[in-house]
Queue: 2 jobs
Job 1
Amino acid sequence: MAEDGHLHHLLKLAGLEPKVLLDILDQAETYLRPPGSAPARDDCLAGRTIANLFFEASTRTRASFELAAKRMSADVLNLDVNTSSRIKGESILDTIYTLQAMQADIFVIRDASAGIPALIAAKVEPHISVLNAGEADVSHPTQGLLDLLTIRQHKGGFDGLTVTIIGDIAHSRVARSLIEGLSILGNSEVRLAAPPGMEPDPDHYPGATITSDIDGAIEGTDVIVTLRIQRERIREKSSLMTNPEYLKQYGLTEARLERARADAIVMHPGPMNRDVEIAGAVADGPQSVITRQVTNGLAVRMAILATLAGNRNLA
Ligand code: ASP
């Protein structure tokens, strides 16, 4: 956030003004098109360079940042982690300085270590923006925004809602960012239901109910977010992770979903493990808005790029 209250870097949702979030959601709506029609385009980043640096696996986020940049007419550089200099020993900051010297304007960063996006934001030249595309288990602000947009589209707003997140919450940046956004935009009840050993640090979720009672947490809820076990962040693997009974005990089955409100929506950030944290029939069922989340993710990323272009008079 710049001193004038405008968005300059996007590192996390916490601390942002409601208006900043709502403006991005409203702008994202303008980029949505009916299926089958040509996608929205905007040339507000023509002549500008966006560098996507993904030092951790990604499918949806990376593809949607790339498409968003192209649909805003930017030049796009996707740094392939396998061939990047970082694995040859160059520090991430040296990579950044190299791309800065090639006149990159916006860095999109995903990294498995906490603090990397903020470090880069502190070191780049002042006209450059840094967008966090997933930071360890700490923050994933564009995912939070696309989840907020999806909830708003289906529920009309955020006040008075019950939002239940189930699965590996301890290691989830998705849960962190969504709850940060919800607490900025409304007054919703948050229930976090995790299997044993996957409960979050309560300090990260003030006001939320934390439980291992998955059935109870789903009772009467408006929104269910299912989460994957974040194997890559768990050093001591537990037998729970390979338990064929996981779905029955802790996942979102059709029977469990019946406990939620009849109009409850089912979300998942992907990648999804069918019949582990979510039953395939639920993922494909009428209450699932999972593919809608993907569509919204692209629109939200376009909206963020448009916001940066508008704020900073990039001409
Ligand atoms: N795609 C999400 C993330 O990057 C969720 C996940 O990986 O499970 O955090």
Job 2
Amino acid sequence: MNHLKEKISQLKAEKNAVILAHYYVAPEVQEIADYVGDSFYLAKIAKSSDADTIVFCGVEFMGESAKILSPEKTVLMPDASADCAMAHMASVENVLKIKEEYDDIAVVCYINSSAALKTVSDVCVTSANALKIVKALPNKNIYFIPDKNLGSFVKQNSDKNVILNEGWCPIHNNITAEDIKAVKQQHSGVQVLMHPECTDDVLAYADYIGSTSGIINYAEKSSENEFIIITETGVAYELQKRNPDKTFYFPEPLPVCADMKKITLQKVYDCLKDNLNAVEIDDETREKALISLDRMLELAR
Ligand code: 13P
Ligand code: SF4
């Protein structure tokens, strides 16, 4: 294993490459990454890095966004089949139809979406900035795609007319209020930190709602020593690393994103060695999708 880590490090230097990893990938992959973070942070790094090659340890939409923001770089995916099911749970036709129906509407696209959906959107958001960006938009009507749960969270916390789309994260949407009640009963009085991809009835139990980074930062700054964490289990690695003396509990069944877990050290090495699974996006798609991603970076500042 160490041998593999050394070989990855050598290849990185030879190719002027950086490794970006999302908090949901396996601990051994987060450990070798140059940058680990939530979707917003990783998109900003992809744009600002001066590396020639980015190895993106995450799912398809993350690699696509990196390539859209940095077309001159080679963006490699350790596993080309690692995808986010929710990224495909909205249709371009439907977006165009809704745009026709309303005068004063902005299409707000969660970054967990295909490049095609980004081409018909006015602005992208992540869970770290969705509320701030929606509030900053001049439009009264918002069509929020693809996540109905993040959309509903935004709707309840802003005065916009947010139109929801039938899309969801299969991992977060599966967590039930019963699961939360059970873990709270086992650890009574412990604060509950949640990701906004959870359903409304689950979010009702939250003491804090935020992105993966938001959850990690909250736990670090808090004077509490125990937390119930309601998101994918990959965040446990960074939580424990930053807070060796604190304890974190997860609900049962454990929320695990099988696609994020497809990324292994061997696949990171293989893709870097042979330039495998390079993300390619045609110019027209890239130019149109870039508008919504750039607008996010602008409005989130
Ligand atoms: P974050 O942007 O909060 O890291 O979330 C990404 C994601 O895929 C959540 O399921
Ligand atoms: Fe997509 Fe959910 Fe996996 Fe995040 S956890 S990548 S939203 S399927």
